[in-house]
TrEMBL record, chain A:
GO MF annotation: an example: iron-sulfur cluster binding
Protein name as catalogued: Oxidoreductase
Alphabetical UniProt keywords: Oxidoreductase
Keyword Oxidoreductase annotated: yes
Lineage: Bacteria, Bacillati, Actinomycetota, Actinomycetes, Micromonosporales
UniProt keyword annotation of Oxidoreductase present: yes
Highest taxon of source: Bacteria
Residues annotated as domain NADH:ubiquinone oxidoreductase-like 20kDa subunit: 18-154
From TrEMBL, chain B:
Organism superkingdom: Bacteria
GO MF annotations, alphabetized: iron-sulfur cluster binding; metal ion binding
Organism: Virgisporangium aliadipatigenens
PROSITE patterns documented for this protein: 4FE4S_FER_1 (PS00198), 4FE4S_FER_2 (PS51379)
Keyword Metal-binding attributed: yes
PANTHER family attached to this UniProt entry: ANAEROBIC SULFITE REDUCTASE SUBUNIT A
Name of the protein: 4Fe-4S ferredoxin
Keywords of this entry: Iron, Iron-sulfur, Metal-binding
A Pfam family per the record: Fer4_22
Domain 4Fe-4S ferredoxin-type, chain residue ranges per copy: 243-273, 322-350
Amino acid sequence: MATEPARPSLAVWKFASCDGCQLTLLDCGDALLTLAARLHIAAFPEASSMIEPGPYDVSLVEGSITTEEDAARIRDIRARSTLLVAIGACATAGGIQALRDLADVDEFRAQVYPHPEYVRSLATATPISAHVPVDLELHGCPIDRGQLVEVLGALLAGRKPDLPVHSVCAQCKARGTPCLPVVAGVPCLGPVTRAGCGALCPAYGRGCFGCFGPVERPNTRALVALLRHQGMSPADIGRVFRTYTATTAQFRAAAEEGARS
Amino acid sequence: MFQLPDLDGLFAALHADGYRIVGPTVSAGAIVLAELDRPAHLPYGVRVETAPGHYRLRPGPARQAFTHTAGPQAWKEFLQPSPERLWRGTRDDEGFRVDAAEEPPRPTALLGVRPCDLRALGILDGVLGDGERYARRRAASLVIAVDCTEPGEACFCVSAGGGPAARSGFDIGLVERPDGGYLARAATDRGTDLLARLAAPEASDVEVTTARKAVDEAAARMGRRLPEVDLRDLLTRHRTDDTYWSAIAERCLACANCTMVCPTCFCARVTDVTDLTGEHAERWQRADSCFDPDFSYVHGGPVRSSTGARYRQWISHKFATWHDQFGGSGCVGCGRCVVWCPVGIDITAELHALAQRDRS
Ligand code: SF4
Ligand code: SF4
């Protein structure tokens, strides 16, 4: 053991989320064995109760920040991590739970819980980058396994990960899926959504619903015009942008624009 | 010209010679290009309805398989496939061993190449022909063209300098008749050999004249046309007309669909990847687009940062700078970019608008 080069240490953390993104790591099949051999998994509460105190070379962080305690915890994790990678729609954009940002939390808390006073949470669900500096973001709900392996492989090799910045359209073309809006008038968020999933939904005949979040500079105004032309109601256009990444500046603006008739 | 009652004999002869046959077939609501086992897989009885941003399959003449235009794919996908691994490397005692071995290309018959796409193949040959992989695939390809008797709503090959009859660049040329028969002509030795083996009867003069007439008449039924001005000059003079380009950018999604379906767009990017073990590296080539935010990225940022600048690059390259670079226009008038633009931006309409603006 003494002659073996030190393996980089990896930690995996969860905040407000469904666990699907960290499960993607456990779902890596043979790649997981290679990863376990090349990385030292120092903390991964979902997989093992043994948690080393760090510091960690890389922390993968899933989930959004919804409580004061979590806001403090992410600062602590940041302080103990050399690289911090936010994984998934929750960690990069707030996730589904960020819909609370657009509503009155006190009101629905009172509707749902017999004793709302026992629930202590923030009025917002915010991405990790709203609290601490983030080195890399992996998008998606859940993240794509291939992208996760690519990022970890790049970190191990000391190179830049190969992550696309274009929209889902390129991936539909790559897998030979004829454009759904063109062949069937199906509403699709693909042209404004970041690639990464491999254009999964359109391959099964349904429009992209934008779970990887907006490309950097989407022309959502042009897409809203197309959705209207396809017969979507203003209410539905507002809703279609308010899902996994509703509070990103781009989709928030698109929802507002779309909801205006 | 020979008479073929159907394509059964041709399929059998091609398969006997070891060709895989790639041609049009219906899949996922469109007519795509795929490997075909038998003529029944061709889109008999299907035509397409096209408009900007609109493509629908409709019932067509039952005995004809080539009454469609502007499909979502172009033949480039078989000559410059994407993604493609260029080499792989393995770490060894001396450092690094590179293995660039490539499967020899499968002999492939490209069946149903329209005259616009034939010209596109000629353009690709000029651009990519020096590439060894491309050249090997091209040499392994047999081109079976089908003249156009049913141009589409988005077609403008005539004003792009072509026409509905295949002139050169094919091995066998077919004209499809309404009764499902074909007139076939050979233009190369390979084509002549194949047709000779089919022992097909010569077509009569009347049959030839009738078929030619149907093709000639198609020329008058183009759905679109380009403005009759010097496009190269027009675009060059409007290079810096920013209000014009930013107005298009309001409608353009910068989704790159136009470049991906265009039969002459050839841009590719090359990326090196390593695997988790750190023992293997690979170099991959993938189709790229001038609409991709990374396409013109140099240190510090992209050269063309706005969508307007990207649209200008696409239309100016096709109709203006392509002349300087490759000695002709980059557009063959196939209409694909018009049909497959999700928001229906019509490249011919944009050129008409620019010409109009220029006049006033
Ligand atoms: S620019 Fe448009 S019409 Fe011209 S060859 Fe390309 S896809 Fe076809
Ligand atoms: S012109 Fe149409 S197809 Fe091309 S990038 Fe713009 S929106 Fe996409």
